[in-house]
Amino acid sequence: MRNVVTKATLLLAMTASTLDASALEVQLLVVHWNKAPMGGVIIAARGFGAPAAPSQSDGKTKLDLGLRFDAQKDAGRAIPIYIVGPKDYVLIDPFDERVRIPSPHDPANAYEQIVLLEKGAADALRDPKVIQAVVARIEAKPKAAASVETTSAERDHAVESVALELGVSEEQIKKAVADWVPPDTDDYALGLKARFENRYGDAVKHFSRSLDAREREANVAMAKAHDAAFFLGSSLYDEGEFADAADAYEKARRYDPNNAATLNNF
């Protein structure tokens, strides 16, 4: 009898939770390229909605996406953003100027980090993380549809475009890339530099290793998150908190849809 009551109770709680629609927010953490939090920065989604409130002294703010997106269906979707002000800064990371819609089971304290660089700050190009973001920005520029590989002319055009955005010279970017020595253990950075230097075979090798490593990390993180959500749900149920238990079990199910122990609690 207890199992029948459990299933009915959890199903009712889950149904109620899915009807509780609310506006989506993306939590942002705005930092200077030297890692210092930045206050007074206004970020907006490109093409819709109102700008976020100016970032606080700790760099934090929230971008309100309203009811335009569904928390379940659109989790992970990329939203283009831009800096409303101050105008003398450029967004360098994320390099594609996009943030992701949070998943309903993301931690409440999860923030999307936004890294800014002053226009004309050529000295910052000596920082490994800055030049990595700059190279990623260059390599992400669209190329001619007919091109199989990025041509020298296309890359020169991309460098010129990014140099203009950053307020530095093309020569300063090229020198910074030439001087950049990524760690031997950072296949992602090594792959970016190989691409910039037209060493596509090396780029494939490094990005393959980087992808393998990141997928392993993601799988381990998902398994750990499932376990925490599962035991949270079990503990909430034993406390008689059935609605919260249903939410926790649902999170566990999303992390591992085929886990027998989790499915048994539905």
Task: Describe the protein in words.
With 266 residues, this protein is α+β, with helices and mostly antiparallel strands. Helix content is 46%, strand content 16%. The protein contains eight helices and seven strands. The chain has a four-stranded mixed beta sheet. A three-stranded antiparallel beta sheet has the order 2-4-6, with no helix packed on it. Helix 1 (2-18) packs across helix 7 (242-255). It starts with a helix and ends with a helix. The model is unreliable at 1-5 and 12-20 (pLDDT under 50).
Mean pLDDT: 86
The helix-and-strand class reads: alpha+beta
The description of the largest β-sheet is: 4 strands, mixed
Widest sheet: strand order?
A: 3-1-7-5
Strand percent estimate: 15-25%
- Unreliable stretches covering 5 or more consecutive residues: 1-5, 12-20
Cα-to-Cα separation, first versus last residue: 14 Å
Measured on Cα atoms, how large is the radius of gyration?
23 Å
Proportion of helical residues = 40-55%
The outline comes out as globular
Tally of individual helices: 8
Number of strands: 7
**What is the helix/strand order?**
HEEEEEEEHHHHHHH
